[in-house]
Amino acid sequence: MATNILLRDNPYINVHDKTVDILYRKKACSLPVEKIKKMYLSKRKLGSWASFPGASLFLPDNSYKLHIRTDDNEITFTVKSFERQHFIGLISWIRNLNKN
User: Where are the domains of the chain?
Assistant: First the structure.
């Protein structure tokens, strides 16, 4: 299976027996591959602090949200920008599975 090459050195993701295990920081989930409908990264928003002038100088936003949509609900993880590349390979693999 191509997942061995693609996700071999990934410390947060383990794919085995058609199940994706994600263990990131203090949050974990285990999902069957066929239940995952969509997976993507989005830039995290600052919220109400962004309305203050110059707030972006004091509150740099360097995180992303990993969204995993399943048949039943949506699971989100807050991902640091320097660890984002660990999830991009999984997103690509899931998208290629859904095409076929």
Answer: 3-99
Conformation bin of residue 21: beta by default, left when phi > 0, alpha when psi is -120 to 50: beta
CA gap 26, 43 in Å, rounded: 20
All residues at 6 or more sequence positions from 88 whose CB lies less than 8 Å from its CB, including other chains: 41
Going by C-beta distance under 8 Å and a sequence separation of 6 or more, which residues neighbour residue 98?
37, 38
CATH topology assigned to domain 3-99: PH-domain like (2.30.29)
Q: Would you give per-residue pLDDT tens digits along the chain (100 residues)? A: 455 555 678 889 998 888 999 999 999 999 999 999 999 999 866 666 556 666 556 666 678 999 999 988 999 999 998 999 989 989 988 888 877 6
Query: What are the tokens at 62?
Result: 């360097």
Q: List 39's β-bridge partners, or say none.
A: 68
How far apart (Å, rounded) are the C-alpha atoms in residues 41 and 78? 10
